[in-house]
Structures are given as structure tokens and as C-alpha cells.
Amino acid sequence: MSCSSARLTPLIRLTFLAALSALLAFGFAPVGALAQEGDGMFHDPTGRFSFPLPDNWTNADEEGLPHYVSPEGADLFVATLESDTSTLEAVAAGVDAVAKSAGLGITDDPVQSSPVPVPGGVTWVQNIYLLDGGATIVAVIGRGEAGTVYTLILRGSQAALAAATPALNAAILGFALAGEISLGSALPEYADEAAYTETEITLRSGDLELPATLTMPAGAENVPAVVLVHGSGPNDRDETLGVLKPFRNLAVGLASRGIAVLRYDKRTYAYRGQPEMLGETVTIDSETTDDAVAAIAQLAEIPGIDPSRVYVLGHSLGGMMAARIAARSGLTVGVIVMAGPARPYGEMLASQVDYLDGLLAADASAPEGTTNAEVLGPVIVGLAKLAAGIAPEEAFPDNPVGAAYWASIVAVDQMADAQALDLPFLVLQGERDYQVTMDDFVLWQDALAGNARATFISYPDVNHIFMALGDLSRKAIPADYNAVGFVAQAVIEDIAGWILGQE
Description:
Elements: E1 35-36, E2 41-43, E3 49-52, E4 58-59, E5 67-69, E6 75-82, H1 88-101, E7 112-118, E8 122-131, E9 136-145, E10 148-156, H2 158-173, E11 176-177, E12 196-205, E13 208-217, E14 223-229, H3 246-255, E15 260-264, H4 267-270, H5 284-300, E16 305-315, H6 317-329, E17 332-338, H7 345-362, H8 372-387, H9 392-395, H10 400-410, H11 414-419, E18 425-430, H12 438-447, E19 454-459, H13 489-501
Parallel strand pairs: 14-15, 14-16, 16-17, 17-18, 18-19
Antiparallel strand pairs: 1-2, 2-3, 3-11, 4-5, 5-6, 6-10, 7-8, 8-9, 9-10, 12-13, 13-15
Helix pairs in contact: 5-6, 7-8, 8-10
């Protein structure tokens, strides 16, 4: 997705990085080694709780202290503490006790202690500690329940914690005590589980293999099909954002209406921590286009799929690339663009930064810290230089790998790509979206004005991931992603109706 980070401070804020509004989840305690069951979850051996962690985190257990290390060097510890009460005050005290007894060298009081409400009516408490003069951050978050405080501890540099935050957001939002249902497993009401099946398959793209899921209508015979293409960043096949899984929503919603869907882990997700597998130079094509083209070709050959009715659906950055993907594939019969950027990428990023920093400036409770403009300013300046014709190595002198990637994005002319295609288009846009806005939607309308088979739909109440806000008085804010929700049913119905109407 096209998202900028919110303020990075010594405190780990909800509005950070990929506009995630869920907070980090971390912890410590002598619970014994957690066991991986092969289901993407880690389970307390005593059966008290479970939570998801990515499989590329290294198990570095020490005696009596579960310990995991991210590829970026962030440490995660897991602990429980018996407590007589689960009031927030008691939980905060328990969290502090865990932090000071975890052997991490914490002696001072936290620089911040704050409640962290998460979806489902649960409130955690997060304490932030600084070590090594602020070079190392320790975030301890705990939840009290039935006489026990469950805690997770994350330790590392600000950069390591920033890289680890999406995985940890998913962990805390997917944390479930025995008998609870993880929020991440919920399905929308419009999913009819009897109407489809899901099969794990492998997408082969060049020399790489990518885990994928095929969602097929029950009894499928010559059905239309769609490949889903992610937004920016190392997304999984569900395009997971905390407990939000927009691609899973799309897959089960469309399959319930007779349309097959293929979704896959992006190569930068599947091979995260293994940069050697991605080649010396990563471009927008190697990151996005090539795998989508391979997915279309593989989907068209699956029994039960009508190869003459295969569509590509791109969200955010994927929407920007959808026309190029369709052109290079030659197998698609239509293009669906969901919140696809139409403006130059640097211009769009700058507007996101202005919006998010404006929110922070208006928030009297926000701690002082580095702004988005300070963090992303060099990228925005570099993109402007690239757009002006300056060579990548001069635009990004300190980041030659990133320079090649950004140069490949700046070189994309998504409007010209779309105009060159003689295919039907469906362009969808949320009017509450602050990341890709109605300005982009108007540009799509202008660019495709000569295409009689282009359809444009905007939704007054949905955000960037097409989740309804229920509030027409404002744009979306990062904290909206902290709510349990699904892609709006109207969006599902419109996509399904458009595809089936092309027959």
C-alpha cells in the first residue's frame, strides 16, 4: 500500500509505518519454550494462549525464557506473571516488574506507561524504556486476565523495531487466550463457507516459488477468475494489516459469488531475510509485475477456470501496475484498479506526509519526536530529482539499491499504460482515503474518458482498504485500522457484478 510512516519517537506509536494503528505486542516470562505447530501460530505449552509470529523469526530460547529474533535484529521475549487482580493499575505494575526482572538491565522507570485498547474490547498496558542513552528501546506490553499478566517484550534499535512492527502488530492482535477466537480468523458475513473451497498451492515465478491460496467456487466449472496484486511493501497473500485481511475478504467474497481468486505471498514477504534470493537489483517489475504475470498464466491453466475470463485486480501500488501487468500477460480480459495511484509517486507520498504530520501537530497528547517529513523527506527529494531527469545514483547517493527501485517506479506511466489497453476497466476509490485520494480517481476518469468500457465507482464511506468508516465528516486516519472490519460488502457486490456482467 502507499503509506507513509507516522511520527517515530522513543515511544512506539500506533500510527507508525504502514499506517498501522494497532500497537506492538511483546512480552517475557518463564512459560517454557513455545511450540510451533505448523499453523503459523506459536502456542503456550500449558495451553493458556497462542499468537501468530512469522516463520522467519529465529527461535533463540534461553533456559526458562522464550526468545525470538527478527531478521532485523529485534528481540522478542515472552513471559507471564501471576497477579491478584487484572485492573489496569495492577497490569501496569506487573509489566514494570517483568521488565525489571527480565535481565535486560532495566532499572529506571518507564519513559511512558499507557493503556492500549485493541479490537475486541481488550486493553493492554504498554511501558517504554530506554537503554544505552536511548539507542536501545524496550517496549513491554501486558494484558491482565484471571489472575495472570501476559506480557511480551520487544527490544532493539528504533530501526529494528520499525521493521518488526507489522509482524508484532499481527501478533498482539492475533493473541488469544484459551477459548478465545483470534480476531484474525474472523470472516465477513458475506462469505458463504459452503460456496467455496480453499487450496494451498505454489506459484512458480522464474526461479522462485511463492506460497499461494486458490479460492474456488464449489463445483467450479469454467468460472471467471481474478489474480490479486498487492500494494507496496512486503505483503502476505491476505495483504494483512493487523487483524485486517482485505485480500482474504475479497477472495472469500468473490468466490461465494462464483468467481475464483488466486492470491499469493509477495516475493519480498516470502523471501524476507533472504535478499540474495531477490537478485542484485530489485525493481518494481521484479517485485510486482513479474510475479503477477506468472500468477495469471498459472491461474489460466487450472482445471475449472475459464482461461478466456481471467482478470487482474490491483490494490494501491498494485492498482498502479495493473495495466502494465495486463499488457505483459496478454491473458487478461479486464483490469480492476482499487485505490490506484494516478499522481506521480513522489507527489502522492508528499501529500501523505503532510496529512499525517498535520494530524500529529493537531494532537496535543502526541509526544515530541521525529516527524514523517524528517523521515521521508530524503525519499521525496530523491523522487523529485528522478522525475527531473537526474540519474538514480545522484538522486539517492547513499542508497544505490533503493535508487534503482525508486527509479523504476518513477519510470512507470500508469495513465499511458491504461490508455494503451483495449480492455474494460473497473476503477474503485474510497472517498475517505487519505493515502490515494479522489484527486487520483479524477485522473483515472480523465485518462480513460475515451474507453467506453471503463466503469468508475467511488464510495463515500470507505478508506484505503475499502473498509467502511461509518463517518462521512472526515477523512480516514491511521487509528481506523485499529478497528475490526472487512472490505465493504458493496465493494464485493460491485466487483462481482462487473466481472459477471462482462460475459
